[in-house]
Amino acid sequence: MRDRAAATAVGCTRPEVTRRVKGYLVRELGISSIDCVALPDAGQSVRATDPLVQRRIREHIRRASLERGAGVIAVVAHAACDASPGTPDEQIDQLCEAAEQIGGWGLGMETMGLWVDESGAVDRLA
Ligand SMILES: [Zn+2]
């Protein structure tokens, strides 16, 4: 059974970013159990047109969440990410598209896009 109190975070796993995202999920959504799927530059990767890449990402997320019964997927991107060459605006666009795309995979989970800005503030954009 899906557990609304458990989440899977997908994105860059820079420790400071992960710490901020975990803080946000605990504070705003009362989520107590969070695991992370490392997918640097999640926005670009999820949008990759290569179906093999897409399938690998989807399987990765599906397994990670099924194993723990997580009810929430948080796609994460942050400012000044080494893995993403885009401008913040481009990164944010990609983040929103990625969250929308993952939400369309029928995993039965609430999907959101979280942006961590230069100051470490977390915003839910999708
Ligand atoms: Zn990063």
How would you portray this structure in words?
The chain is of the alpha/beta class and 126 residues long. It has helices at 15-29, 42-47, 51-68, 88-103, and strands spanning 3-11, 33-38, 70-78, 110-116, 122-124. It has a five-stranded mixed β-sheet with strand order 2-1-3-4-5. Helix 1 links the parallel strand 1 (3-11) and strand 2. Bound molecules: zinc ion. Residues 12, 14, 40, 78, 81-83 line the site of zinc ion.
In short:
With 126 residues, this protein is of the alpha/beta class.
What fold name goes in the CATH topology slot? Beta-carbonic Anhydrase, Chain A
| Strand tally | 5
- How confident is the prediction overall: mean pLDDT? 89
Measured on Cα atoms, how large is the radius of gyration?
Answer: 13 Å
Strand content: 25-35%
CATH superfamily: Carbonic anhydrase
Q: How many domains? A: 1
Helix content: 40-55%
CATH class descriptor? Alpha Beta
What is the strand and helix layout of this fold?
Blueprint: E1 3-11, H1 15-29, E2 33-38, H2 42-47, H3 51-68, E3 70-78, H4 88-103, E4 110-116, E5 122-124
Parallel strand pairs: 1-2, 1-3, 3-4
Antiparallel strand pairs: 4-5
This protein binds zinc ion (ZN).
Zinc ion binds at residues 12, 14, 40, 78, 81-83.
